[in-house]
Amino acid sequence: MSTSNSSAVPDSEPAQLDPEIAARLKRDANGLFAAIVQQFDTLEVLMLGWMDDEALRRTLTTGRVTFYSRSRQEYWRKGDTSGHAQYVKGAALDCDGDALLVRVDQVGAACHTGAPTCFTGRDLPVVTGQRPD
Amino acid sequence: MSTSNSSAVPDSEPAQLDPEIAARLKRDANGLFAAIVQQFDTLEVLMLGWMDDEALRRTLTTGRVTFYSRSRQEYWRKGDTSGHAQYVKGAALDCDGDALLVRVDQVGAACHTGAPTCFTGRDLPVVTGQRPD
Lengths: 133, 133
Prior knowledge:
Oligomer: homodimer
Shape of chain A: globular
Strand content of chain A: 25-35%
Strand order of the largest sheet of chain A: 2-1-6-5
Distance between the termini of chain A: 79 Å
Number of helices of chain A: 3
CATH architecture of one domain in chain A: Roll
CATH class of one domain in chain A: Alpha Beta
CATH superfamily of one domain in chain A: Phosphoribosyl-AMP cyclohydrolase
Radius of gyration of chain A: 19 Å
CATH topology of one domain in chain A: Ubiquitin-like (UB roll)
Order of helices and strands of chain A: HHEEHEEEE
């Protein structure tokens, strides 16, 4: 037994995503999956971001949504720069594991443009359909 | 003027996605972008699918949602096999053009498993967060 070695023993296992959840994920070629963010009370869809396993681990365990930024190639905890944090209220993976739905309480504007959501004012013209009577 | 040639002249331009909309799209390496589908009245998030330009054109102009199936590599008009059609009520592109939000009237179950949505009963354990008072 060597005291000089004991400091190399971590107090706990390195934090990692629950392997049972990781096994359900279907990631793209870059190791990412889509995360839909929805306001928990109004049910408004706020934005779509991207996560990897570590971003999901942080989102599920810290109470704040963390994405992986494809353009900056780094983790991005929503609100750290803007103040527009997303507090996690719930999360669900879809049936084939390639999409996450995160229900949050959004502080301020969800969109970096200052709009309430990333879809606000960006409607496309559509021909609407009608279910048969 | 030749009558034998007139049948080769199309009655209209080939159908294609509005170039102004196409110019706003940010597609992945496979030419696809994410489409979030939301029930227009309850605001429930039903599923996430994938579209290319042609799937979006069909979705915007026919009143029915069409996806591009990554696994089958073909167009897939939701409901043609299952009867669980999605009638389009509105659509919006997000601020950076890599996600579409489609508001629909869903007939029957949105999920191929028969569940109301692809996220139904698939909640993950979360540590919730709380906005500061």
